[in-house]
Automatic annotation (TrEMBL):
The keyword Membrane applies. The keyword Transmembrane applies. Residues 22-65 form the Leucine-rich repeat-containing N-terminal plant-type domain. Keywords: Leucine-rich repeat, Membrane, Repeat, Signal, Transmembrane, Transmembrane helix. It holds the Pfam family LRR_1. GO terms for cellular component: axoneme; membrane. It is found in: Cytoplasm, Cytoskeleton, Cilium axoneme; Membrane. This is Leucine-rich repeat-containing N-terminal plant-type domain-containing protein.
Length: 218
């Protein structure tokens, strides 16, 4: 009896530990439209990562770290989703990868996602995103791949994105961006692929970009 009670307490503690991530994901889903019920099994009281006993499977589109049972990936690409991107995803602090490409999501990129300090992959391409690029995302120091191409993003290229110290691939092509290339981006030492085509950019390549020894595609 005592062993059973201990197992029940351990199971409850595991659920409680992941409750913030589950709540944040449900709030994120609530801001989306889901005509094909891709998120129908995301439900309160269930666990985003299933459970260690295998009685419940992870929610669709969720990738988990097996030993820790934490949410590390979100892949909802090509699910026909609409609505907007919710800031609550920033509360899933263990996220390393977000793939939302090929949907119909509108609105802007949430500045709050700047708090995802482990995020290394972000793909929101081929949606209907509009608004400006949040300067705050420059604090994503672990980000290596960012694709926001084929949207309707406007405004300037944020100088603060020079803070993306690990960025290797940056694709902002096929948007409505204006202004010149930021001098500060010359400090992106690992940038190997940058695509800005089909925008309304002006000016010449800044002299500071001569330090871009890794840049192979521009």
């Amino acid at each position: 009896m005592r062993a059973l009670m201990l197992r029940m307490r351990m199971h409850a503690n595991t659920l409680n530990a992941h409750a913030p991530a589950g709540d944040a994901l449900l709030e994120f889903a609530a801001a989306l439209s889901d005509p094909h019920d891709a998120l129908a099994t995301w439900a309160p009281g269930s666990h985003p990562c299933g459970d260690s006993a295998g009685h419940a499977r992870p929610w669709p589109g969720i990738e988990c770290d097996a030993p820790a049972g934490s949410v590390v990936g979100l892949d909802l690409s090509g699910k026909g989703l609409g609505g907007q991107l919710g800031a609550s995803l920033a509360d899933v602090e263990t996220l390393r990868s977000i793939d939302l490409h090929n949907n119909s999501v509108s609105g802007g990129l949430p500045a709050a996602w700047a708090g995802l300090r482990f995020l290394d992959y972000l793909d929101v391409s081929s949606n209907a995103l509009n608004g400006t690029l949040p300067a705050a995302l420059g604090s994503l120091g672990s980000l290596q791949h960012l694709d926001a191409s084929c949207n309707a993003l406007t405004g300037t290229l944020p100088a603060a994105w020079s803070g993306m110290a690990m960025i290797e691939v940056l694709d902002l092509s096929h948007n409505q961006l204006t202004s010149s290339l930021p001098e500060s981006w010359g400090r992106l030492a690992f940038l190997s692929s940058l695509s800005l085509r089909n925008n309304s950019l002006e000016g010449s390549l800044p002299a500071s970009w001569s330090a871009q020894t890794q840049l192979l595609q521009l």
